[in-house]
Records
---
Amino acid sequence: MQTIAVVDYGMGNLRSVVNALQVVCDKGDQVILTSDPQQLLDAERIVFPGQGAAGDCMRAIDEYGLREAITVAAAGRPFLGICMGMQVLIDYSEENQGTDCLGIFRGQVKYFGDGHSDPSGVKLKVPHMGWNRVMQTAAHPLWRSIEDGSRFYFVHSYYLEVEDPGLVAATTDYGIRFTSAIARDNVFALQCHPEKSADTGLQLLRNFVNWDGQP
Amino acid sequence: MSLAKRIIPCLDVDNGRVVKGVKFVEIRDAGDPVENARRYNLEGADELTFLDITASSDNRDTMVHVVEDVAREVFIPLTVGGGIRELSDIRRMLNAGADKVSINTAAVFNPEFVAEAADRFGSQCIVVAVDAKRVSEPGEAGRWQIFTHGGRKPTGIDVLEWVARMDAYGAGEILLTSMDRDGTRIGFDNELTRQVSEAVRVPVIASGGVGNLKHLADGILEGKADAVLAASIFHFGEFRISEAKAFMRSQGVEVRDD
């Protein structure tokens, strides 16, 4: 019996995240979608998704009064950031002429760029959209039963650059090699969408709902 | 490169039922959207597109329930098209569990709608569907125009200008259908696809004309598409998604197979 809270701050399709968690959690577990800071603080586990632009996300987090609850939750219990929910954990994003984010981790979020290309000069589309390989760079309980190099579904135009290389849990190649997952203590966050990554993604979510929060 | 090219089956839905449904032996009810979606997911489809062809707008709610039911069981990206005219239509579909909506006619009549939609919901969920028809004479350099009403009504809008504008307005992806090729089974219009793909920053999905597996690979290799969409070759059980992927891989196209 546990409560898994999915943070709802009005950004994007959260239904799929809830649906996917319901498939992988135990029968007695409760998956709630909530904007209430107290409910977040009462939950055993937090999933922090997000879509859209960084500026809108940060504004929404403050409008819903969730900044403190998210920061507290990220400091003490199993916490999973997904897509924009990973990017805003960082200090600063280039998006929307520069957006200050939650600052839980040191680093920056950068734009792939309009002239983005692969090393041989072939133009690459932005957003980076579709199934790409996630190369596990550090062992972690959330990778259990997931083969190194498995494909996950991505859709994003900005990517993470962390200061501490020790945070990086996975990388992905798209013209450049970027950080596609980070982990520290009780926090795990990834750029791709496990809730849209078929069986591989469900396995990651299953690992999360069973995780004790230890790296 | 390690980003896989995507294969997207498209399912037509009329009043909540899949029409031209899959003839798989495993499927008991060929018209059930959930059974079809589950089957395609098992076979390795990279995304699913549902096109609502319900004529009466009174029955639009049915599509919302279809999306809810599919999204509860199938965890790959879902796109819904057909009848998306207002921001409230988009919100309803996203809330039901769709990841993207595809906007076609409404964009032609009100291009600002695309900008508003992208601004409100994010570019990642806005697909602009473009129905293109060649208007150049044989031997001339290719020119294409946007057509509406299933390819019957010309709009006078040049396709390459239009897709660049939709890109600038915040479309996250272009679903490009050649109305000359749609239903012909002679292959995509790869010249059109390549020119559109080179004219925009965002991914392009090729559609219209697939009759065999080579056509799918050609759409990627010659048309420079990022994804290929097909309906009939998969529905009638002629080819499986897994066969399409194996063939594309043999042609040097990177596909998801894990």
Note: Residues 60-73 of chain B form the longest helix (14 residues).
---
Amino acid sequence: MANILIIDDSVMSRNKLKKILDSSDHTVVGEAQDGVEGLAKFKKLSPDLVTLDVTMPNMDGLQCLREILAEKSDAKVVMITALGKGDTMLEALDAGAADYITKPFEDANVLGVIAGALEQG
Amino acid sequence: MFNKYFGNYILSRKIFNIEQIKSVLAKQQAARPKLGVLAIESGYLTAFQVDRVHRLQVLHDKRFGELAIAEGYLDERQLEELLNKQKTSQVLLGQILVDEGLLTYDGYESLLKDYKKDSGFSDLEIDILKRSHADEVVNLFVKEDGTGPVVELFKEYVELFIRNLVRFIDSDVILDWAYSVANYESEGMAVQEIVGDHRIETGLAGQDEVLVRFASIYAGETLSSLDDLAKDALGEFMNSQNGLFVSNLYHKNINCNLNPQHFMNRTNIRQRGRLYVLPCQLSFGKITIIFNR
């Protein structure tokens, strides 16, 4: 059971994620549509976990990830991306992301990855 | 897939009246082997499991395959294999036309000859349509420029696009001929640029009502106009399509990335090197795939 912040420029993706998370024990405490808004909400809401889209206008996901981890080094961030290619995700994992989910996502996969990320020390 | 093309041809020739066509299509649908039967034949599901999925279908408005995966009876690969078997096991339209007494064998043979002549398909190409392999079918409809690197890239893109259309939007996809133009005007288009080793402008265009239906299916929500959510869903479809395409390129040591997708109203795209246009007929209307490299 965790408080989760969703950062994604797509309202459809946010709706889908929210629906999946609402059907579980988790609580969506906030939503943001780009990295700038997401970082502000992260500071304000102190969520247990952040789902963070990679491709976004203003501040992209990788930059936002770095800013979040600079704010709180043990923050749990799960990246969401349509890009299943290795280097982007490796870069995110190297930077400190807990895990990643590729779009289009499925309920079981989302909840499984989030559960795994929350279990990480 | 041959049935769809040949069926469209019969419709366009107005050989039969609409009631006859509806009756034939209904019989063709009923003649399709059930996924459950194919799953038992393949040894993937027991009769008990098939029965359970059928009972779940009564409770949930979901397809057999979706529920079988959710229950852990099938994985994605097995489902794809069964769906392919189902497609290739389709009773040929011609057989039903003859069985129904709408055509004699001579009449069918003659109609088929007309179809080959009018469509320009060779016997080999008709066979490809009957086998319904996406990569071979794409080759049939993308003949522009022979085998240059850009057209090969376009073919890869279209092949993936068709798979995603079938997977997420509509299993009834009929390709039209691809062509290249100097510029392409559209009332509305979801656009995303692929950047890096390749720089490609990609788009999904169509009339508003078709795009709204497309977006509704992809978002899993009932949408009534081309509002922000609908445009967002179209962009997300493009993002997923292009994400997979870029990932495939990455495995060939071609490094690309994606710019954020967006929706353009009343747009006019100008050709860079080659601007390809591929119209596709879905069960609810026509969409157009744009590929500008």
Note: Chain A touches chain B through 21 residues (CB under 8 Å).
